[in-house]
């Protein structure tokens, strides 16, 4: 693409139509007349950043979010943990006022959503599940365009872009086109873009899906840096390790219902409460009767037998001398909780 064509693209991207694209017309109408200059930023002093009370959403006759209630305190990292189709992105969209709930009440940064979603969104940074960066533009240009969505002048955006690039570790890529970036770099740029308006609340929809371990660790480190700066983060994920590492509290979702809520360790203690012995290399169904008397619970998943054993040595003794068996003793984790709550092929 020539420089001229590129400038045309950039100019087009900065047009009023694109700015309007950022808003949801129905929501604009609802909030019309309610956003005064005085209330140009959401309530930064509120100790509750997000509150969902009995929120329900259906598509056709399918209930996608089912009487969901949760609260997120300011400065907290709160996780929405659930499998594909659990309703995580729908919840994120409702929080932003992009999808209207059928019932219930949502408050974000002290204002009701969707009624005053435009106001709420001024204090929110969003990392959507699927990157929607402009591939034709450079890293810097993407940030400039996004700044415009928040009414920032080029000068205002340029003043913050160096620190955003540093945050995203993209200083040396400022003039590279997005199409030249790796998946991890694109994710970091989307995160940096979400911070351009210095939001109080950051909503991240599966920030690390599809990334290699190195990129994932970088993003985790960056998220922790945001928390250290007092930001509130809502994170959707189906990576248990991610939730365990980052979240102060989380709710486990199944078919849009909140089936458990608490801190990661508290949930592990409450629902598992002992170490886990993973046994593989043999027929798990054949081994069941041997280990059952010494296990609090047993589960079979594929070729692996999971023994939730208060005294793992007794399980080990039972299996002594059996050739080919591999035993792995490990602390219980959030995945055990998740699988227990959402059901794995189970033998009690
Ligand atoms: N606009 C829509 N119209 C009809 N059904 C929808 C719409 N949006 C979402 N759904 C349905 O709602 C359910 C929840 O979808 P959602 O995208 O919120 O799940 P998710 O937890 O984010 O899943 P994933 O982990 O795959 O991203 C799915 O069954 C999906 O097909
Ligand atoms: Mg999703």
Outline:
The protein is α/β, with parallel strands linked by helices and 348 residues long. Helices cover 37% and strands 26% of the residues. It folds into 2 domains: 13-267, Rossmann fold (3-Layer(aba) Sandwich); 274-331, Alpha-Beta Plaits (2-Layer Sandwich).
Q: Could you explain the architecture of this structure?
A:
This protein folds into 2 domains: 13-267, Rossmann fold; 274-331, Alpha-Beta Plaits (2-Layer Sandwich), CATH 3.30.70. Helices cover 37% and strands 26% of the residues. The protein has 14 helices and 15 strands. The protein is globular. The site of adenosine-5'-triphosphate has 12 residues, from helix 4. Adenosine-5'-triphosphate is lined by residues 59, 64, 82, 84-90, 129, 238.
Characteristics:
single chain, 348 residues, alpha/beta, Rossmann fold, Alpha-Beta Plaits, 2 domains, six-stranded mixed sheet, five-stranded antiparallel sheet, 14 helices, 15 strands, globular, binds adenosine-5'-triphosphate, binds magnesium ion
List the helices and strands and how they pair.
Blueprint: H1 3-13, H2 16-21, H3 25-31, E1 48-59, E2 62-73, E3 77-81, H4 88-95, E4 103-108, E5 111-113, H5 117-121, E6 124-127, H6 139-149, H7 154-167, H8 183-194, E7 201-205, H9 213-228, E8 232-237, H10 240-246, E9 249-254, E10 257-262, H11 264-271, E11 275-280, H12 284-291, E12 297-301, E13 304-309, H13 312-319, E14 326-330, H14 334-342, E15 346-347
Parallel strand pairs: 3-8, 3-9, 6-7, 7-8
Antiparallel strand pairs: 1-2, 1-4, 4-5, 9-10, 11-13, 11-14, 12-13, 12-15
Helix pairs in contact: 6-7, 11-14
The structure holds adenosine-5'-triphosphate (ATP) and magnesium ion (MG).
Magnesium ion binds near residues 129 and 205.
